[in-house]
Amino acid sequence: MATTSSFIYNMYKDKNTVVKESIKLAKVSGKNIAASLMFADRDSANSILRPILNDKNVHSIKIYDNQGRLFTTIGNITIQLNNWIADEFVNYPEVSISTSWDYIDILTSITHAGENIGYLQIISNTNAIKKHIIEQIFVSLTIVLFTFVIIFILAFWFEKIFSKPLYDLLNAMRQIKNDPASDIYLPSHTKDEFHELYTEFNRMTNEIKKRDNILKEHNIDLKKLVSSTNEELKKTKSNLNEVSILATTDPLTNLSNRRNTMDQFDLLIKDAQKEDKPLGVIMLDIDHFKQVNDNLGHQAGDIVLKNVAQHLLENARDNDVVGRIGGEEFLILCQHADMDTTYKVAERIRHNVEQQIISYEKDKSTQVTISMGLCSTIPALNTKEELIKIVDDALYKAKRTGRNKVIKGFVV
Question: Which of 30, 199, 251, 322 has a Cα at 20 to 30 A from 130?
Fold first, then answer.
């Protein structure tokens, strides 16, 4: 912007200088040829004006009389910038200026004794101005180019001195971030602040490597310890599960044992009271089980117990509690089951057991039946002992009245 403004300013300055010199030359020449114009002496006028043509800027000179008629011309007469006619010279100003890119046209009046006796026209070319402009453009371009070279050199120098060390440091930090185990070292070939920065950075990375190696060694030991501890915990958990199963499960039938069944009984009573829904209770035992043991042996008796227990689980509902509470006695707790639902569960179990053929030795089998007593109630104030007595009485009635049947008991 500054270069352009300077260029335009100098161009107009040069142009105005040429115009001023041309006007001054025209006025002086006009006075010198006044006599030649009055006496119509063209040769004298040409002789006076010819030295002016030695100025390379002057292209041609023309003289007109006071009527605007051409009196004489010297120099290059092929250029006609203005078509001067007589009417245009009436009251013509003392000086008239016309400019173009290639020429400057100066027209001034020639006077004698205060009267206008003619006009002098000097046409100058603008070659000197153009040359100066070209030189100025060349100088400006040279300065601009030199400035760019200096800026480039300074930028390269600053990049080498300041930017590159910072970029190297940032790249090293990124590499450490992406690969903490990478071996990073920043060499410094200077004695400035970056040398100190690189030295501290290298010292820091070395400390990190030492700590990582120590942590790695300890981590390996820790992994071994954790692995060993996990194995011990798994074993302990497995042992606890086994103990828990043994503590709550009957070992022969895999049903809930008496203690766990009674604990579940207490929880179901509380649930029935809270939800205000009935709880079904079924008690059963195997008919003539003593004869099975006496006649077939205790091993056959155990097989019968396992078979009956399996069918109890298969025919009870998913959320029912099935437990063995004595030798051949079983208890089934039916959550949220009214009398009809409890009876259907009991009858389904009884019928299924009756149909089963139980093999206990090669080519030997037997069949058994079961007797069942049940009740269903919303145990507002009833304890489990009271409910057990109700179903036990119903079971006794089933055995007394023929066995292999289901008897309902009712809460009073």
Answer: 30
- What tokens does 14 get? 């040069």
- The predicted pLDDT at position 201 comes to 73
Q: CA 282, CA 204: separation in Å to the nearest integer?
A: 78
The domain spanning residue 88 has which CATH number? 3.30.450.20
Contact 333, 281 (CB under 8 A): yes
> Residues of the chain whose pLDDT is less than 50?
81, 83-90
3 state DSSP class of 96: strand
CA within 13 Å, CB half, 194:
16
Q: How far apart are CA 13 and CA 22, in angstroms?
A: 14
Whole-number Å distance between alpha carbons of 64 and 49? 14
In the block, tokens 């042996």 appear at: 297
* 52: its two tokens: 């002016």
pLDDT for res 83: 47
Rounded Cα distance between 158 and 400, Å, is: 113
Q: Give pLDDT tens digits for 129-165.
A: 777 778 776 777 776 687 677 766 766 665 656 677 7
Query: Hey, CA dihedral for 311, 315, 318, 321, is it positive or negative?
Result: negative
Alpha carbons 401 and 129: distance in angstroms, whole number? 144
Q: Which domain holds residue 397?
A: 258-408
Both tokens assigned to 140: 């400006």
Whether 233 and 97 map to the same domain: the answer is no
Distance CA 45, CA 25 (A): 15
